[in-house]
Amino acid sequence: MVSLASNPQKFKVKVQPSLIDGTGVFADEAIPPYKKIGELRGESISVAEARRRAKRQQRIMIVEVSDKRAIDASGSSDPMRFTNHSCAPNTVLRIRQGRVEFYALRAIVPGEELTANYGETHHEGRLTCRCGAPNCVGSL
């Protein structure tokens, strides 16, 4: 379990194996709709550096926060970095004042995996999506 005092999480979450892909982050308590769940922190880098890093890695944890800056969370201890993609997500990622924040799209029950729609990725449609949603588009 994650200590709420040491991170920007507003709700208790836990990191564990995911049926979607590798490791995921799961609600450890009920999360009401539209509430901020937490943030993703990491190293602030240029977008050019972020794109260089993304080309070298299959699994990335990088979010572009502006046309000039990105956050690389691969070295972060924030559990939200394990938020897997889903074509039917239960969270939305918002960029606010250079911060990467996650909000619940609906009520989330304890034990449910937190997911977000990644949108455009460096995979450019070459990576198979494994979200299992009825409306899955099939690739990232």
Automatic annotation (TrEMBL):
Endpoints of the signal sequence: none
Subcellular location(s) of the protein: Chromosome
InterPro entries for the chain: Post-SET_dom (IPR003616), SET2_Histone-Lys_MeTrsfase (IPR050777), SET_dom (IPR001214), SET_dom_sf (IPR046341)
UniProt keyword Calcium present: no
Predominant location: cytoplasm
GO cellular component: chromosome
Domain Post-SET, chain residue ranges per copy: 125-140
Keywords: Chromosome, Methyltransferase, S-adenosyl-L-methionine, Transferase
Domain SET: 9-119
GO biological process, one term: methylation
GO molecular function ontology, one term from the record: methyltransferase activity
Segments forming a coiled coil: none
Pfam family for this entry, one: SET
PANTHER family: SET DOMAIN PROTEINS
Designated name of the protein: Lysine methyltransferase
